[in-house]
What does this fold into?
Amino acid sequence: MKSVKLDLFSTSTLEALFSQYAEAASSSGIIKSIIDGVVIIDGLASVKAGEMLQFGNNVQGMALNLNQSSVSAVLFGDESLKRNYNQVNYNNEIIL
It folds into this structure.
């Protein structure tokens, strides 16, 4: 039986793909809970306090409390809208 070497991706290609995935993963998170306009989010590893967040359906919020495993944020909009949208993103816009 012949051995076939599958070299579909070079090391540099794999490193580039991993880098893109890691960047995307650190700039997005998942809503864990919403209570009285305060959102607890898992993820968002690189977010800064005061940074604007996008929740989908044009609802925004602001990151306030940064923990190792979660981020607390205030929601600027109707919190009932967010029950249908799990993903949260940020865009490096900080409100002073």
